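Hi R.,

As promised on Friday, here is the backbone we talked about, encoded as structure tokens. Could you run it through your design pipeline when you get a chance and send me back a sequence?
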């Protein structure tokens, strides 16, 4: 196995060495709007193309309740 292959080895939730993508102001605004529409967390995750855990953490950080 080459060093590059080792760095891309699956590590449970994502490939080892993968960096979390920072949230933009536009994505936070969309998240707030989707939550206000009453969408479930899983539908929001698919819409924003982010992991469910990322949606949950950001919503809690923004003080927004999820369904």
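Update: got your reply. Pasting your designed sequence below so it's all in one thread:
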């Amino acid at each position: 196995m080459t060093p590059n292959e080792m760095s891309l080895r699956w590590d449970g939730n994502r490939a080892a060495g993968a960096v979390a993508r920072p949230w933009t102001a536009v994505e936070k605004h969309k998240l707030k709007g989707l939550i206000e529409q009453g969408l479930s967390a899983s539908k929001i995750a698919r819409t924003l193309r982010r992991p469910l855990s990322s949606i949950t953490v950001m919503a809690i950080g923004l003080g927004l309740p999820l369904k």
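One thing I noticed while checking it: The chain has four helices and two strands.

Thanks again,
M.
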